[in-house]
Structures are given as structure tokens and as C-alpha cells.
């Protein structure tokens, strides 16, 4: 997309956020911004617990979690370690300009694939009401006009909700759980903004492809609301595939991912609020 086209697309995002017709989808980059571990650190912990070294296996964290479950009988101990390690420091959230801008932008619905509670902590710190949605019971409790934080891959407070091991991911690819049905209903008529993702997560890519295909089969693809992903660096191959699926890639060229995302959200908040 050329510069003029990117500017027009960005203005469409500003209008959608201003009119509360947008959904934020937040990934691991958001958690790492407040000091929480990366997936690489999770992999290192599982290898240590299982007595493996990198030379023995270069498996993904999903496959390692599956192996952990097979060897240990459950992922209970791993879940407990993650719960302790992924504990958000409220002072860090309080200092986070990134989280302050997310709360200020006032998205009606926020989806996250993170297990931690950094979004919830940010909303509490800034005195904003919200409802956390993890399972079907929570869906029935959501109030009209109340911001929703949807924990798409589960929450530490509900072990059964966690999508961590490879089987969990493969099961979710059926897209027939209550949260999957909610996601399809929510996203069909709204603009999506993805932040904190590398966009290599196959679960997310399949979701985007299915959404694109649904609109294509409807015969009304031209009426689909625009959707966006913010990525600090451009990649012509990745960007072309995403744009084929109706996802506009936004970037600002900043090398540091956290600084890049913070600068983007601060600009977006200023434009939505009409600040210079």
C-alpha cells in the first residue's frame, strides 16, 4: 500500500475507534512491555523441568507443553509457575504509557490471547469498570455498554480455559466454543486492530483467514469494515498475505517494539480525541 493509501486507511481506523466501532486484539508484546516473560523464557523453563536441552529438541512451546502434560500427568505445576511468574506488578502497569493509552481509547471489546491480567490491572488502576470474559457463564453476565476483556486463550483463574498445549490449540481450530462463536459475531461488523503480535500464531492466522472467507462467501466483501495490525517493522511477504485477507499493516519504522507501539497508540489517542 502506498503512502496515500495508508493515510486514508489510518483515518478510517481513527473514525472507527472514535465511534466505538472497533475491537482491540492484544498479544504477548503488551505483556512483555510490563516485564512479563517471553515465550522463549517459558520454553527454557519447560526444558529445565523436563531435563531437556536445546540440542535435544527445538519444539515449540505448544509441543513442549503437550510433552510436559504427558510426562507429568497434567500441566498443573506449569500453570502454577506461570501464574506466579506472569504476575503483573501494579506499579509497572501504573507507569505504562502503553496501557494508559489503551484505557483512554475506550474500546468496547478487547480480546487478548495473554493469560495474565495486565489489561485488567490497567483498567482497575485507571478507575474504569469492565467485565472479564473467560467462559460461557461470563457471557451471560456482560452488561450493556460495559467494556469487555475477552481472554481468548484462557485465564489463570480457570485451568480448564487455558489454551497452552498443542492439543488445546488443535481443538480450538474447530472454532466451535462459545468464545469462538462470540468472536465471529463481534468481528463481522467491526474494525479490528491487532497489537503486540508477530502474526506468526497459526491460530490467529486461521481466524483471520476464516473471517476473510466468510465475507467473500457472503457476496458483500466490499462492505467489510477495515481491519489493521500494527507491526514495528515491514515484511513484504507477511504484509502482502495479510493485506490479501483484508488486514492493513501499519508501521512507524521505530526499531524498539515497545517504543514503536507506544508511539503509535499515543498518536492514535491524540487523533481520536482531536488533540494536536
Describe the structure.
Strands 3-4-2-1-5-6-7 form a seven-stranded parallel beta sheet, with helices on both faces. β6, α13 and β7 form a beta-alpha-beta unit. The protein has helices at residues 3-18, 28-32, 39-50, 61-72, 76-85, 90-95, 97-105, 118-125, 136-139, 166-172, 178-188, 202-218, 236-244, 257-273; strands at residues 22-26, 109-112, 131-133, 148-151, 191-195, 227-230, 247-250. The protein has 14 helices and seven strands. The protein is globular. The model has no long low-confidence stretch (mean pLDDT 87). The two termini are 26 Å apart. It is an alpha/beta fold. The longest helix is centred in the last third of the chain and has 17 residues, at 202-218. It is 52% helix and 11% strand.
In short:
This protein is an alpha/beta fold and 276 residues long. It has helices spanning 3-18, 28-32, 39-50, 61-72, 76-85, 90-95, 97-105, 118-125, 136-139, 166-172, 178-188, 202-218, 236-244, 257-273, and strands spanning 22-26, 109-112, 131-133, 148-151, 191-195, 227-230, 247-250. The chain has 14 helices and 7 strands.
Amino acid at each position: 500500500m502506498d503512502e496515500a493509501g495508508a493515510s486514508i486507511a489510518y483515518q478510517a481506523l481513527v473514525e472507527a475507534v472514535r465511534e466505538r466501532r472497533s475491537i482491540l486484539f492484544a498479544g504477548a508484546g503488551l505483556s512483555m512491555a510490563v516485564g512479563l516473560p517471553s515465550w522463549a523464557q517459558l520454553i527454557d523453563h519447560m526444558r529445565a523441568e523436563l531435563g531437556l536441552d536445546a540440542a535435544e529438541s527445538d519444539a515449540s512451546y505448544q509441543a513442549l507443553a503437550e510433552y510436559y502434560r504427558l510426562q507429568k500427568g497434567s500441566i498443573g505445576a506449569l500453570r502454577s509457575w506461570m501464574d506466579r511468574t506472569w504476575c503483573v506488578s501494579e506499579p509497572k502497569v501504573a507507569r505504562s504509557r502503553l496501557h494508559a493509552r489503551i484505557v483512554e481509547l475506550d474500546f468496547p471489546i478487547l480480546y487478548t490471547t495473554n493469560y495474565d491480567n495486565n489489561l485488567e490491572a490497567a483498567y482497575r488502576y485507571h478507575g474504569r469498570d469492565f467485565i472479564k470474559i473467560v467462559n460461557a457463564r461470563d457471557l451471560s453476565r456482560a452488561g450493556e455498554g460495559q467494556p469487555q476483556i475477552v481472554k481468548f486463550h484462557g485465564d489463570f483463574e480457570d485451568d480448564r480455559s487455558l489454551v497452552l498445549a498443542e492439543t488445546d490449540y488443535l481443538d480450538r481450530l474447530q472454532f466451535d466454543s462459545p468464545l469462538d462463536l462470540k468472536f465471529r459475531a463481534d468481528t463481522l461488523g467491526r474494525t479490528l486492530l491487532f497489537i503486540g503480535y508477530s502474526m506468526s500464531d497459526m491460530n490467529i492466522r486461521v481466524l483471520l483467514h476464516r473471517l476473510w472467507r466468510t465475507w467473500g462467501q457472503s457476496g458483500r466483501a466490499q462492505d467489510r469494515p477495515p481491519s489493521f495490525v500494527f507491526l514495528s517493522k515491514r515484511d513484504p511477504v507477511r504484509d502482502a498475505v495479510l493485506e490479501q485477507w483484508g488486514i492493513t499493516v501499519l508501521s512507524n519504522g521505530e526499531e524498539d517494539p515497545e517504543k514503536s507501539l507506544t508511539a503509535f497508540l499515543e498518536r492514535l489517542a491524540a487523533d481520536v480525541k482531536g488533540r494536536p
